[in-house]
Q: What sequence folds into this?
């Protein structure tokens, strides 16, 4: 995107996370949304081939030399593509369409594919997580001066790049399909509808479901996180507000409270999934990535009230991927003029062309290397 970014610069820069733009969040619109959750026909990027009928083999790095295809021991006779074998017959080297992955000596994976019954050569080593982080930290988005907030933590931009990559790699998942659905006319609840003129002014159309709309939603989401928490994953509740019950206390990157879950069944599904994932595979939460260089105080980690809302507050801070994926859905179901987030209601969250370029580069990377989605750390 070559459109010039439009930045409002204020004389005072807010760098802390408390009181970061949600002071009037208690005025939730709890009425049923008219949001249309009809699924788009086909997202632009489909990583479902990873889970296709084609068999996939992941070779352990200690299982032997994987750099060369196995030689056929049948006196160079053609391989039987049927795969049958006995002492008098021919044995196929492999089944067509099968892919084999091997660990690299340093990091990442390499892949080879079976064609015409014979293994091809292994390709170059590729580390999906490292490639996404490299794009993010070297992008102009990492150097943006955010209005009234200043510079974003480098960890925040890298983390948001990985969350977006995860969404692309799960393009068929129901919550991602919702976020990438075409802009509605519901300006009270749909942030893309409420921000229509701002997106249009930057040459970004959300009229069609797919990865472009998903990318634009994550662009706005990145701006929302800077406005709400200054990009600090551990941000506690807004101390200038009176939201101190378990259901209303805000937490995390986007200052979201548990009472928001009523707006979509997708929100409860994400919460349930990430509660388990956080315990079983905590690295998927990307806490290590989002926390690099970020200092969290004792008061930041404090949670309020009793009940499920307390668990929600902790998960918002300790699992930044959950916080981002949950807020992405919230953009579409309670992100408009009467929605959950004050900065969205007031059009204070910025949409930046620099971040649009970063997200587009990540989109291209995923499109060209979708075989490696399964090795993304937050996949």
A:
């Amino acid at each position: 995107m070559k459109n010039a970014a439009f930045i409002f610069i204020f004389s005072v820069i807010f760098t802390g996370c408390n009181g970061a733009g949600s002071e009037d969040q208690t005025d939730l619109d709890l009425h049923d949304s008219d949001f249309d959750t009809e699924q788009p026909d086909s997202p632009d990027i489909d990583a479902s081939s990873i889970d296709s009928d084609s068999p996939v083999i992941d070779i352990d790095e200690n299982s032997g030399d994987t750099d060369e295809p196995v030689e056929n021991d049948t006196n160079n006779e053609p391989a039987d593509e049927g795969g049958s074998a006995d002492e008098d017959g021919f044995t196929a080297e492999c089944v067509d369409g099968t892919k084999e992955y091997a660990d690299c000596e340093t990091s990442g994976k390499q892949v080879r594919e079976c064609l015409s019954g014979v293994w091809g050569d292994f390709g170059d080593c590729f580390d999906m997580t490292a490639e996404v982080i490299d794009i993010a930290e070297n992008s102009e988005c990492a150097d943006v001066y955010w209005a009234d907030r200043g510079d974003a933590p480098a960890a925040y931009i890298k983390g948001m790049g990985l969350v977006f990559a995860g969404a692309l790699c799960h393009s068929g998942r129901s919550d991602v399909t919702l976020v990438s659905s075409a802009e509605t006319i519901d300006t009270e609840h749909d942030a893309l509808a409420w921000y229509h003129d701002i997106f249009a002014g930057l040459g970004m159309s959300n009229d069609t479901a797919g990865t472009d709309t998903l990318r634009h939603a994550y662009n706005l989401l990145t701006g929302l996180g800077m406005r709400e928490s200054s990009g600090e994953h551990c941000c506690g509740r807004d101390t200038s507000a009176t939201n101190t019950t378990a259901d209303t206390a805000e937490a995390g990157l986007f200052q979201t409270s548990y009472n928001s879950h009523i707006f979509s069944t997708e929100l409860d599904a994400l919460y349930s999934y990430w509660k388990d994932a956080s315990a079983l595979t905590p690295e998927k939460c990307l806490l290590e990535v989002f926390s690099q260089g970020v200092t969290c105080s004792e008061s930041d980690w404090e949670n309020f009230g009793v009940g499920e809302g307390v668990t929600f507050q902790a998960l918002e801070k300790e699992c930044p991927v959950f916080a981002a994926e949950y807020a992405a859905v919230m953009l579409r179901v309670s992100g408009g003029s009467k929605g959950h987030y004050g900065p969205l209601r007031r059009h204070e969250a910025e949409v930046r062309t620099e971040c649009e370029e970063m997200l587009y580069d990540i989109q291209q990377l995923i499109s060209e290397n979708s075989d490696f989605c399964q090795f993304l750390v937050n996949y």
In short: Residues 1-15, 18-43, 47-56, 60-86 have pLDDT under 50 and may be disordered. The first strand starts at residue 56 and ends at 59.
